[in-house]
Design a protein that fits this description.
Blueprint (H helix, E strand, L loop, with lengths): L2 H9 L15 E5 L4 H12 L3 E6 L2 H14 L4 E6 L5 H9 L8 E4 L17 H22 L5 E5 L22 H26 L4 E5 L19 H14 L3 H4 L1 H8 L8 E4 L9 E4 L3 H4 L1 H15 L14
Parallel strand pairs: 1-2, 1-4, 2-3, 4-5, 5-6, 6-7
Antiparallel strand pairs: 7-8
Helix pairs in contact: 4-5, 5-6, 5-11, 6-11
Length: 325
């Protein structure tokens, strides 16, 4: 382990009073950045000096987001690149056409929630395919660029809902039956397993990459109203929007955990950042260490093996075999 990493683990995070520290010189990729938490994350990183790549699946919405960001943050360095996590060919094209040597920060924000049953272009159940497998493949394919950075971070957006998942490795792809909420929280638990296992493998390889997971808390976004939900009828839309306005926090509040994990100096790799209130639903960002999934090494390794097989992506980590427990 490097001396710098040892210092970070000893000293712990330095909280910047809620403010984002200067990001000048950093290159950040934020997936699903055309709206919601992803957009706010990209905007605030750009506001504080980062060069931000908005990785979005729809060109028109992505162009609109970049234009809006440049109005809100004059002089921002922001650009759009197309990426569809529901199609591994798109993920591979995104990585193959990456034309800068390094990436300092990857925020795996894009995801879908509690959608009607469908399958991705590669035949995976859509929530597992987009939320986990697409994220897994993208991170692995971008790993050489991340390792070219002097201080790379990967932030993966999970959910407070992962606490209620009954994780079933034999039914990851809706092999038996499909329940939207079950599939969603299972995919978000997979995000947490992935982030923790990536850190263990980075530590075993002796590289300086830091992998974090976050939960945003109850947040107003279009994840329950846009995309596949747009065809669910007027009554669904009205009731969902009412619920979002009454019970959920503004989008900027939900982005705070992502920004915390992405920017706080000294935050140890392997951290899970969630709101500090009851059930992780509201409050200020804070590292949490007692989540069972963070310490379930066996399940995380089995999921990693399955994910490699399904995506065909292996991570380019030197001496990548993880240590035995």
């Amino acid at each position: 382990m490097s001396a710098a990493r040892q210092r970070r683990r000893r000293t712990g995070p330095e909280r910047p009073g809620g403010a984002v520290p200067d990001q000048s010189g950093r290159l950040a990729v934020v997936t699903g950045a055309n709206s919601g938490i992803g957009y706010v994350t990209a905007r605030e990183l750009a506001r504080h000096g980062a060069h931000v790549v908005l990785a979005c699946r729809d060109r028109e919405r992505g162009d609109d987001a970049v234009a809006r960001l440049r109005v809100e943050v004059p002089g921002a360095r922001a650009e759009l690149r197309l990426l569809d996590l529901a199609d591994l060919r798109s993920v591979r094209d995104f990585a193959a056409h990456w034309d800068t040597p390094r990436i300092d920060l990857l925020v795996n924000n894009a995801g879908i929630a509690m959608v009607p049953f469908s399958r991705t272009a590669d035949g995976f159940e859509s929530q597992f395919g987009v939320n986990h497998l697409g994220t897994f493949a993208l991170t692995g394919l971008l790993m050489p660029h991340l390792l070219a950075s002097t201080d790379p971070r990967v932030v993966t957006v999970s959910s407070e809902g992962q606490r209620f998942a009954r994780f079933d490795l034999t039914n990851l792809n809706a092999e038996r039956d499909y329940r939207p909420a079950f599939a969603y929280v299972q995919s978000k638990r997979a995000n947490l397993y992935f982030a923790a296992e990536l850190q263990r493998r980075a530590d075993a390889a002796g590289v300086g990459l830091r992998s974090m997971a976050v939960a945003p808390g109850l947040t107003r976004t279009n994840v329950l109203t846009g995309g596949a939900h747009s065809g669910r009828g007027r009554a669904y839309g009205l009731l969902t929007r009412l619920l979002l306005s009454v019970a959920f926090r503004p989008t900027a509040e939900g982005a705070k955990t992502s920004l915390y994990a992405a920017t706080v100096p000294g935050l140890p790799g392997g951290s899970y950042v969630a709101p500090d209130g009851p059930l992780q639903l509201r409050g200020r960002p804070a590292p949490r260490t007692r989540e069972r999934a963070l310490h379930d090494v066996a399940t995380a390794r089995r999921l990693w093996t399955v994910s490699e097989r399904l995506t065909g992506v292996r991570f380019a980590l030197p001496d990548g075999a993880p240590p035995r427990p």
